[in-house]
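Quick entry, no commentary yet.
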Amino acid sequence: MNYYFQAERMSVGYQGEPVIQNMEIGLNRGEILTLIGPNGAGKSTILKSIAGQLKLLGGTVYLNKKELSRMSGAELSRRMAVVFTEKLKTELMTCEDVAATGRYPYTGPFGRLSEKDRAAVAEAMELVHVTELGSQDFTKISDGQRQRVMLARAICQEPEIIILDEPTSFLDVKYKLEFLSVLQELRLRKGLTVIMSLHELELAERVSDRILCVDGPYVERFGTPEEIFRPGYIQSLFHIGTGSFDEENTSMELEAPRGKADLFVIAGGGSGRSMYRKLQRERKAFATGILYENDLDYPAAGALAAEVISAKAFEPVDEAVLLQAKKVMDSCSRVICCRTAFGSLENANRELLEYARQCGKTIPYREGDDFRWQK
C-alpha cells in the first residue's frame, strides 16, 4: 500500500549503535501518529532521525513517495516543520519575531516578510492564542507560552507534516486540550500529518489515528488506539510494578492499601471514586459493592479495593450476590454510603444500606466532607 509518509526498515541510534531497529511505519495524509513508551526508550531518537537531525543507521523514509534524504534543505523546510524541546537562542527577539522565523523558507535572500507572510504569522499566533504575547521578549515568558509560540512558528511555515517532541509537557490542562485541538483542526482543514511523542496516555488515546509503542530494540506495537489499549498491555510496556493502569478507561491508580478491609463502601454511578482515593491516601483497606461491571466506579474499585462485590451489567442482582455483600459487610466494623438516593434497579443496594443501619455500622457522610477515620 502506498502511504503519504512511510518508513521502511528504519533503524536509528547514535554513533553507529542502534536504539531501535527495522521500524515499519505507514501513514496516510492527515493522520496523527503518537509515539509512546518508557523514558529513554528511543522516542526522541526516532523523531530526530525522521527530522534529519540524526542520520539513519538503516532503512529509508519517504514523504509522498520521495526519499527525505534526497530533498534539498529548502524543499524539506517547506514540507516539514519541527518543534523540539531544545531552547532556541532568541536574544532580543519578541514572540512575534520567533513565530515569524517559520516564514523564512518562503522569504527572499534578505528574509524580509511580505504582507502575505505577516498575515500567515498573525493567523498562526491567533490559532494557538499567543497574539497578546507578540511584543513580549521570548526569553521572559513561561515554558508553556514558549511552547505555544513555537507551535505558531511551525504552523505559519505551512508544512505538510509536523514533528513534535513532547509538545504538551509544559502546558496546563487548558492549553493541552487547546494545543491538541489545533492539531486536529489543521489535520482536518489542511491535511496536516502529525508525528509526535506524548507522555499523557489518555491524550494519546484520544487524539491519535495511529500509535507507535517503543521499548527498544524493536517496535513493540504499531496500530490504532483500539488495537494498542488492550487490557494489560500498557502495564507491560511501561513495566508498571506499583499501582495500576486501566487501558479501557486510560486511568491510573496508585497502589491499593494492604491488609484486611475494615470499612465497607456502598457506592455506584461514579459516587465512590473520590472516597476510594481518599481511603487510598490514608492507606485504609476497604471493600465495596454492589457495583455493576459497567459502573463508573468499577475500574477504580477494582484497582483500589481489597474486595469488590459486583453484578453483571443490565441484569437483576442475584440474591447470592446480596448475601455475599452482607457477609463481607459483617466482617467490617464500619459502613459508609456515598449515595443520596437509589434508582429503581438498585433495590439490592437499598437493602444493603438498610442492613448496615440495622447493624449500627453506618457513618454519616456528605460529598466533600474532610475527615480522618477514627482508629
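second:
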Amino acid sequence: MSNLIQLIDGIASIVKNEWPIVNLPASQVEQRVQAGKVVLFKLTGEESVTPEQIATTAVPATGKIIVPLSVFIARKNELASRIQQGDVGVWLDTHEVLEHLIENQADLNTLPIIAVHVERFADGRIFSLGTLLRTRYGYKNELRAFGDVLRDQLFFLKRSGFTSFEIRADRSAQDALASLEDFTEPYQGAVDEPRPVFQRYNRTA
C-alpha cells in the first residue's frame, strides 16, 4: 500500500506515488564525526555530494522522476527536453542552499514538483524551506516532504506549504492521515492561512 499522502483542493488522501525519487549512489567519502557521533545535521551549504556521485547517478531514460538538486544542476542540459515536458522534479536535503536551485531555474513553476528530504525528524529546517518556496519564491506546484516524516509533523508541514507527504516506510500512512485534523484553528498565521486568529474572528464584548 502507498505511504504517500496528498492534499488536493484541501482534502487529504492516500494516493499512488507517480514520482519516483532518483537517489545518489553511496559516497566513499569518510563521514565527519563529532564527539564520537556522525554529524547528521550538516551545515547549510556544506559540500556533501562528490562529482563522482553526480556523474554516476542512474537516471531512468523515461517517465516522471525527481532528481537530486546536485544532479539537476550539473546535468541540466541532459535533462532539458524532459524538464520542458514536465517530467522532471527536484529534491534537496535540508542542509542544501535553496538559492542554488533559484540560480539554476529562474521559473520554479516550470517544475511540477519539488521535494525536501528530511534526514532526521527533529530537523526543523524543512519548515523554513517550505515557507520560503511558497512565499519568497512563489512556488505554486506540488511540494513534497519525504524521508524521516512522521505523523506529528504533518499538520505543521501543511502549514508551511507542503501538499504531499511520503510517510516513513515503517509507519502507517492511514494513521498519519488523521493527524492533519489534530488542530482545528491555529493561532498563528502561516502559508496556508496568513491571518492570525485575532484577525479571522471578530470578538464582541
